[in-house]
UniProtKB/TrEMBL annotation, chain A:
Protein name: Uncharacterized protein
Key words, A-Z: Membrane, Transmembrane, Transmembrane helix
Transmembrane segments: 60-79
The keyword Membrane belongs to this UniProt entry's keyword annotation: yes
UniProtKB/TrEMBL annotation, chain B:
A molecular function GO annotation: DNA binding
Protein species of origin: Candidatus Zambryskibacteria bacterium CG11_big_fil_rev_8_21_14_0_20_40_24
Residues covered by the RNA polymerase sigma-70 region domain: 16-81
GO biological process, one term: DNA-templated transcription initiation
InterPro entries xref list: RNA_pol_sigma-70-like, RNA_pol_sigma-70_dom, RNA_pol_sigma70_r2, RNA_pol_sigma70_r4_t2, RNA_pol_sigma_r2, RNA_pol_sigma_r3/r4-like, WH-like_DNA-bd_sf
SUPFAM superfamilies in the cross-refs: Sigma2 domain of RNA polymerase sigma factors, Sigma3 and sigma4 domains of RNA polymerase sigma factors
Protein name as it appears in the record: RNA polymerase subunit sigma-70
Length: 326, 169
């Protein structure tokens, strides 16, 4: 039987809706349209006349939240520059810093955050001391906080274990890394031009051989990445540790200056200041050289300068005392 | 605003007058069931109105109607299998039966057409109905199906071959 496909389909045109059914559905649709009118535009026109009123009434919650955020944000910002004893100092330490601390995750970040807190307390000691309103209680409290934060920073990076376990092998790890890089380079090049023609051009014919070689190169690349990450972590931990030591040294120096400026028990204060300066110097001298960290080198230099400056101040004060005794 | 609303209503009812037959034919050849096809037409236009009433915008009403009908047909297939087309010759509701020789011949040809289409896989049946019964262009089918024109052309080519094979042309 021969059938023309176009003619064959042409017969479908004889199929149509019966007039009764078509009219029936139309009537139902007309009723449905009346029951479900287009309302979107009408709502929009009503909104035009009382736009602000409607907006505010519908967004009361949002406006309230924005207001609270504005007030809290402004207070928080004002509190940032306060010192112990100021009205908003509690907002700075109990709200601003606590809230920021909630968003700190990971041991490295936690260590950095604790160092920043220690630095903040240190700056506060400096400012109070400069304004000559650093009380004994405040000094002890801030000192306790600094020790606490620096200890937390060191604890967060588990520095002792990492350094003792890996420091010796650091050089050998770098050497291993360089060897692996040399071994892997030709495979990486092959992988990057992985079309069959290119592989044939470099003399690799067998598909299985190519697969094995690429797999091996992938393994090597993964191990290199792992080693690099490990080295990076160790380096970061080391930097954090040094930063913590410098902060402790600076704290000793501030304390020494405070002792030097104390008026009543002059000789005992001098002795105390002398001891604190030696302690700071010892810490600074024990910091390893060539850290390759500009920030640390600068902090170390600043601590040494501060130490010299305070020593000079101490010696001058000693001479004044000796003259007075004579 | 009332004027805009009335205009939308008017356009929608005009679209019904113009395209309801085509949508019915499409549904009929897809589901091979006259009653179900009628319900699908009603459902299609109801859904399109709901979309318009909620502020939806339609650029090409014909393509949109096919898209909605197509989705409803897919739902229909999900719910239950189609009834056998062997009973189709016995159903004459779509056209009042007349005992003329010409009419009997016409009905038997439609029976053959639906029976042949029913032997095709649904993805082939769908494009054949859209292309040859609904008279939609490849571009329109690709828009309705949200597929590339190339994909539609390939499927249509395969469906035509399959149909020829069934009809032994």
């Amino acid at each position: 039987m021969k059938i023309d496909l176009n003619k064959f389909f042409k017969k479908s045109e004889t199929i149509s809706f019966s007039k009764e059914k078509k009219e029936g559905i139309r009537l139902k649709l007309e009723t449905f349209i009346k029951e479900t009118p287009v309302i979107v535009q009408e709502v929009a026109s009503a909104r035009n006349e009382f736009r602000w009123f409607v907006y505010l009434s519908r967004h009361t919650a949002m406006v309230s939240v924005l207001f609270v955020v504005f007030v809290v944000g402004s207070t928080g910002l004002l509190a940032e520059g306060t010192l112990p004893g100021d009205f908003l100092y509690g907002v700075k330490t109990n709200i601003n810093e606590q809230v920021r601390g909630l968003f700190v995750g990971g041991s490295q970040d936690r260590a950095e955050w604790n160092l920043e807190l220690a630095e903040r307390r240190l700056v506060e000691i400096g400012k109070l001391s400069a304004e000559d309103r650093l009380s004994e209680e405040q000094r002890e409290e801030l000192k306790r906080k600094i020790i606490n934060h620096t200890d937390k920073a060191i604890e967060a990076v588990s520095l002792k274990e990492e350094l003792s376990g890996n420091e010796k092998s650091l050089e050998s790890r770098v050497e291993l890394l360089q060897t692996k890089k040399r071994e892997t380079t030709p495979f990486v090049e092959i992988e990057s031009e992985a079309s069959k023609e290119n592989l044939e051009q470099v003399g690799v014919q067998n598909n299985e051989e190519i697969r094995v070689r690429i797999e091996k190169s992938e393994e090597k690349i993964n191990s290199i990445t792992a080693i690099l990450n490990n080295i990076k972590n160790i380096e970061t931990a080391r930097v954090i540790h040094i930063k913590a030591l410098i902060i402790k040294a600076r704290e000793s120096l501030y304390e020494a200056r405070s002792d030097l400026r104390g008026g009543d028990e002059v000789s005992s204060n001098l002795e105390n200041a002398d001891r604190l300066i030696r302690s700071a110097e010892e810490i600074i001298n024990n910091i390893p050289e060539n850290t390759n960290d500009f920030e640390i080198d600068r902090a170390q230099e600043s601590a040494v300068n501060k130490s010299t400056e305070i020593l000079k101040e101490g010696n001058l004060r000693k001479r004044v005392l000796e003259d007075q005794e004579r | 605003m009332k004027r805009v609303s009335a205009k939308i209503e008017n356009n929608f009812l005009n679209a019904y007058d113009l395209y309801s037959d085509q949508i019915y034919r499409h549904c009929f050849f897809r589901v091979s069931d006259e009653e179900r096809a009628t319900d699908l037409v009603a459902d299609t236009f109801t859904k399109v109105w709901q979309y318009l009433a909620q502020g939806g915008e339609i650029k090409n009403i014909r393509a949109f109607l096919y898209k909605v009908a197509n989705n409803l047909i897919i739902d229909h297939y999900r719910k239950k299998k189609t009834t056998s087309l062997d009973q189709l010759a016995e159903d004459h509701n779509f056209d009042p039966p007349e005992n003329t020789h010409e009419k009997i011949e016409q009905e038997s040809e439609i029976h053959l057409l639906t029976k042949t289409l029913d032997k095709l896989e649904d993805e082939y049946k769908e494009v054949m109905v859209m292309r040859y019964i609904d008279g939609l262009s490849i571009k329109e089918i690709s828009e309705i199906k949200e597929e590339s024109q190339n994909a539609v052309s390939v499927r249509l080519h395969r469906a035509t071959n399959k149909m020829k094979e069934i009809l032994k042309i």
